[in-house]
Amino acid sequence: MRSTTKPTRPDLDFTGQNRLGLLRPGHKGRISHFDAEHLNGEGVEMTDRLREMGFAEDLMIEVLHQSPFGRDPIAVRVGSMTVALRRADANIVVVSDE
Q1: N-term to C-term CA, the chain
Q2: 41 lies in some domain
Q3: Residue-wise pLDDT tens for the chain (98 aa)?
């Protein structure tokens, strides 16, 4: 007998918020906040760099492309600009569903 339960993905949080680096091309959402605690000291600098590039809370964001080899880097659209990011840097950005 086949199970009718939906498979889960351990890398995604189904509460509506996920790290940008975990999302697939085509996903759209809003920047909820920045979380760089996992970077051990470099997080503040990278968060500042992302803000200088134009990333800000409540902006619309869309994952456009990912590299076919290793899936790194990814291309995202933030507002009206397109930016390429390493997944490690993209994981600082927490995105909520539209």
Answers
A1: 36
A2: yes
A3: 444 443 344 454 556 789 999 999 999 999 999 988 776 777 788 899 999 999 999 999 999 999 888 778 999 999 899 999 999 899 999 999 87
